[in-house]
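My current task is to audit a protein record that another person submitted. My question to you is simply how this chain folds and whether the tokens agree. This is what I was given:
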Amino acid sequence: MIREAEIEDLPRINAFLDQHIETSMFLRSNLATHGLGFSDHPHSTRAFVWEADGQVGVFGLSKVGYVMAQMPDMPLEAAQAFGHAITGHTVLGMTGEKAQVDVTLRGLGLGKAKLKMLDDEPLYQMELADLSETRVNSRALLESDLGPLERWFAHYLEDTGQETEADARSKAAARGRAAFDNGRAEVLLIDGVPVAMADINAHVEDVVQLGGVFVPTEHRGKGYGALVTTAILQREAARGAKQAILFANNPIAARAYESIGFKQIGWYRIALLQTPSEVRS
């Protein structure tokens, strides 16, 4: 019923995930970037394939403990089989289509686990051919941005409900360094000063997924969220991207994305466990 994916499975897995790309970006991107199985990278991922009675599903577990899945109309049996396959591994949380997250966590025995974040966010898509061509003043991160960036990430992690104030501060420096090292973040410049940021958290062929869009409190209400989003999408479109996906953490962000052409296509669930939990068969 369920088995760990092998190299020869990847073309079929990729084709399947591409049919549901809007809710498969993390899993698809991890496999495209890091291949199958765990490596030294935190986003490296073990993948598992479920096939039964004509139904197909793909499950993933990243090295740091985030669960991903793609299986429309997922039966509890499939999620339980995945749980058995990853028995002994620690889970931090899961993101994905709402019903699939619910069934998967139940199958892992975590359906009643305490959560520090449970958020259903509007899922948006945009064809980049519709993007404004008016150039926005922005640039990639510089090492000199790391000080302000640490403060920004502390506020971002707290504002989005991902971490408590204390945990956000302790993790902010590492998040800022990671954003600088991966080279995908962009900052909006007003009079030469960075006032907002955006990042790409998944990239598959000509599709990108945005994350980490943040405007510091003192700069809010000025349209900078829409501008920095436009800036990073202009950069990605110049590199060949044709479609963008994101999910909005709050109504103000949603209106900003809609103002530049994003259309809501569904909902996306984020479920983060209060305490990392081991999967038990």
Q: What stands out?
A: The longest strand covers residues 263-278. Residues 72 and 215 are 35 Å apart (CA to CA). The chain has eight helices and twelve strands.
